[in-house]
Amino acid sequence: LEFALLGRYSKAVFILKKALKEKKEELVLVIFIVFLLLIIFSSLMYFIEKEAQPEAFSSIPEAMWWGIITLTTVGYGDVYPITSLGKILGALIAFLGIGMFALPAGILGSGLVEVARKKEINTDKSIEELSINKTATCSNINKKIENLEEKLKGAAEELKLLKKLLK
Fold this sequence. Notes:
Layout lengths: L1 H6 L3 H12 L1 H26 L10 H12 L12 H83 L1
């Protein structure tokens, strides 16, 4: 719980959250596709291997266990295909497992780049606004100084007139 609370104050965690939020739709789509592929390939493996290994691939959920272990590239070795077609499908699923991690990593990397780019653009805009405000402030100060100078000139002329009148 404390670790989660510390995450609120970490700049890196904040940036990661922002990137995840930016790429939420793409990541959800990848997860959906992986889940769909898991169901399809596990079902195929069940039908390919059920005759050769009825105890290992006794149902589609059992084949899904094998599919999850293979897709995540853990590969416990407790269940594996023994038919030629099953081995080919298993190799294909293993290669898809590598892509399963590479694709979300690429999407997340893209999200991090977008967050950094947006931050850079916002920083540039802030600098530009400060520059404009500084120019506007300097301009306002110059106008006020000019107004004061005019008033002081006017006051100086009035003082000269008063001195003449008093003499």
